[in-house]
Write a structure and sequence with these properties.
This protein is of the alpha/beta class. The protein folds into 3 domains: 3-60 and 411-447, Roll (Urease, subunit C, domain 1); 62-178 and 253-401, TIM Barrel; 190-251, no CATH class. It is built from 15 helices and 17 strands. The structure holds zinc ion.
Amino acid sequence: MATTVLHGCDLVDGTGAEPRHGVDIVVREGTIREIVPTRPAETYGTVDEILEAAGELAIPGLINNHTHGTAYGPLFPSGHEALPPEQVRANLDRHLLEGTTTVLCVDGFVTAEALARTNDDHPLTVKLASCNTPACLEAATIADGGGLTDETRAFTARQAVEAGAVALGEIGAGHTLGGGGASYMYIPAEVARRTTVTITPRQADALKVAVLGRHISASSFDKDAVEEALEAAGLAGKLSVAEIREIVSGIVLPAFDIALQGLTEAAEYARRADVPVLVHNAAASMTQVAAIAKTEVPLIAGHSNHTSFELREALEHAEQLKELGATVDVSTLDTFGAQRLTSGPDLLYAMFESGLADTISTDYAGGHHDPILLAIDHAAKAGVVRLPAAIAMATAHVADAIPGVAPGRGRVLPGAVADLVLTDPAELARVRTVIIGGEIVVRDGARA
Ligand SMILES: [Zn+2]
């Protein structure tokens, strides 16, 4: 098999160590063999390819622990109708071109057979998580379930773990727990159906918070806030306070309690199956998430910078989770780009600056996620995190937190699997080369 030399690059190796300058990385038979101070290319004799990489930064291929729409099968833990296969492949292309070499698909109802087909169709490594426990299945069925088939329903979490699922997750979701999924999907769709008015995710979110509060409770209903939110969404005179209350409550509440129960149930399943549980961590689920953190099960607290949190609340909650041994994940969401759901980087930066963030993922953000390297670039330039530490959060820390997700990957060390990225140190999101298992799969920023 091929020998490739990444010649003369700088290296941030994923361990958190300081950058090394001017190294050659020798890859043979899919494995990183040597990392040595750079020497003239001709001294390598017969190799298959010398990749000239002077002025470029080598990092481990990113391991993204929280993605949706990255495998064939029902979308989201609400079992939504599957995306068309070409959209799944386009999503995988996008992750790949962003420097990601492994994704954990946390849609939760994907079967092993569908995952195998996904992996056959794309070079990126897609790993499976399952949310198919009785309560989570019931919550999905109530909230949506439009993409669930007899086959996906029958493929339980226990079977999924036996077939290679590396975690249970995503347990709870914006679609079953009244989070982003309600705001960018279900509420705008129902409002449009009744009024023909198209509202934005943020307008839907404001309506939801006015009706049910950030922590999702019928008792949080605030009539004045609802009137204001209707006005702001251009719905005054089109929907009454009572009508929007009924719409929002009807979408969010039926699945909510059973989805909360699903968190505790899935944690117990994960403990028995000896895999981590990856949960939807948001204002609505924080009490249950904290309770899980007190048990023995390895816990990944997904997107702990969720937009439903207030800043202080998020930091205190994350601190508590971390003290209890949980992995605190932050997601890029649409923080820097679309900003349809998030309103800027304050909370993400605060999670970095406080040292609370352990891992970085993208989540879905209604299909508008920001690249991990873009978020790291902004955060490093803002001085809230050091580059080697941030790269470790997207590589080695993920591999360590979820042992099955990317064994032998996540660090650029001799003997590791050769999943590597070459990018522009001045603009990290400008990924030039991606190598998976020693194969060059992205050249000059395009699929090879
Ligand atoms: Zn979520």
